[in-house]
Write a structure and sequence with these properties.
- Helices cover about 60% and strands about 15% of the residues.
- The protein has about 240 residues and is α+β, with helices and mostly antiparallel strands.
- The protein folds into three domains: about 5-35 and about 170-195, no CATH class; about 40-165, Alpha-Beta Plaits, CATH 3.30.70.1130; about 200-235, no CATH class.
- β2 (about 95-100) and β3 form a beta hairpin.
Length: about 240
């Protein structure tokens, strides 16, 4: 197909593409608005070795993964629930908590997701405080040169929270793009179904590649053939009552 053929198709059926895209975007927007929002709150912990020693630094990097496992224990979750007086069990709390270690920056990213932003902030802040206290207690039994300090970089109450899902803008844009692609498939499918249908001189020229100089209109014989004969009209004449 040449460029002119594509232009002809879009002029003829382009409204289908626009309509499908609008319907898809509107549906995604409405679906996003009907969903219950989930909010996210996060805290970053800094893990600092007591001295700038290569061995201790590497040991600290290796301990980051162990710290993740220590944070995500039912014992830790139970202490957080009791301290913050939360109405949930340890399994539900751990399902809301996510911990990511970053060995290159010696940090731990703690994130909590909940439908209530206050609950999300309370959980992540309390978990951070409990873990810092636990590490401080561990340091008391270590030589000062071998201690690893854990501190909270920013208080969650200063950072606030953000909406994690649904992301209405992204959902709407993605659905609109999908609608455009679906609309294109629809119009090319319709064009494929009608590729053998000839309705005009332009269709003839495009099919056989020969310029059409004229067409033969229907003659009088054809017109008279379509009219019922006098005898037939008499036959179907209604009888008087």
């Amino acid at each position: 197909m040449e460029l002119t053929d594509y232009l002809r198709i879009f002029r003829k059926r382009g409204w289908i593409v626009i309509l499908v895209a609008l319907i898809a975007a509107a549906s995604a927007f409405a679906f996003s608005k009907l969903q219950t929002p989930v909010y996210s709150a996060s805290v970053k912990l800094s893990v600092n070795p007591a001295r700038a020693d290569w061995g201790l630094s590497n040991a600290t990097k290796d301990l980051l993964r162990n710290y993740v496992e220590n944070i995500r224990t039912h014992r830790m979750a139970k202490e957080v629930i009791d301290r913050a007086q939360l109405d949930m069990d340890t399994t539900a709390l751990l399902g809301k908590l996510f911990v990511s270690p970053a060995a290159d920056t010696f940090t731990l990213q703690l994130e909590c997701r909940d439908t209530d932003p206050e609950v999300a902030m309370t959980i992540v802040q309390t978990v951070s405080e409990v873990f810092v206290e636990d590490r401080d207690a561990w340091n008391q039994n270590q030589d000062k040169r071998d201690q690893i300090d854990v501190t909270i970089l920013d208080n969650v109450w200063n950072l606030g929270y953000r909406q994690y899902s649904p992301n209405t803008k992204i959902n709407t844009a993605a659905a609109g793009l999908f609608g455009l692609l679906a609309g294109l498939l629809v119009i090319f499918f319709l064009e494929w179904l009608e590729q053998d249908v000839i309705r005009s001189a332009a269709d003839v020229e495009r099919t056989i590649g020969v310029t059409v100089l004229g067409s033969i209109p229907p003659g009088p014989a054809d017109a008279s053939a379509r009219r019922p004969s006098a005898a037939r009209r008499r036959f179907f004449r209604p009888r008087p009552v």
